[in-house]
Amino acid sequence: SNRRWDVRRTAIEALGAIGSRAKDAVPSLIKALSDKRPDVRRAAIEALCATNPALRDSLPVLIAALNDGNGEVRCAAIRALGVIGPEAKDAVPALRAPVKRGNRVAHPPVK
After folding, report:
1. Other CB atoms within 10 A of residue 73 CB
2. What is the pTM of this model?
3. How far apart are CA 111 and CA 88, in angstroms?
């Protein structure tokens, strides 16, 4: 792992561009979801979509990303769940949470 966040993000984006041929990188992409930089976390979610045809295997970490403190990361997680489709039904309660709170703009982190 590189100390520079922009290098980490660029490497993750390159893995995403490789697509399903980079499926061996999925564990590293999941690990990147805990990076301190939101740009890196967002890129990791987007790369997971591109590299993991069985994206549903990443469902638990994508559901957790719905509680990220950064709106772009949350939006990337929502898009990824949309890619999974009906098999992401376990995410429905987490997706409904902001609606129940009356939050129409952003999904705040749950504490």
Report:
1. 22
2. 0.82
3. 23
Q: Could you say which DSSP state residue 3 is in?
A: S
Average pLDDT over residues 43-58: 85
Q: What is the pLDDT of residue 4?
A: 93
- What is the spatial distance between Cα 41 and Cα 20, in angstroms, rounded to a whole number? 19
pLDDT at 95 over 90: no
pLDDT per position as a tens digit, 18-33: 998 998 999 999 999 9
- Contacts of range 41-46, beta carbons closer than 8 Å, 24 or more positions apart: 41/65, 41/68, 41/70, 41/73, 41/76, 42/70, 42/72, 42/73, 42/76, 43/9, 43/12, 43/13, 43/16, 44/12, 45/73, 45/76, 45/77, 45/79, 45/80, 46/13, 46/16, 46/76, 46/80
Cβ of 82: how many Cβ atoms within 10 Å? 12
Residue 30 and residue 56 in contact, taking contact as beta carbons nearer than 8 Å: no
* Backbone angles phi and psi of 14, in degrees to 5: -65, -40
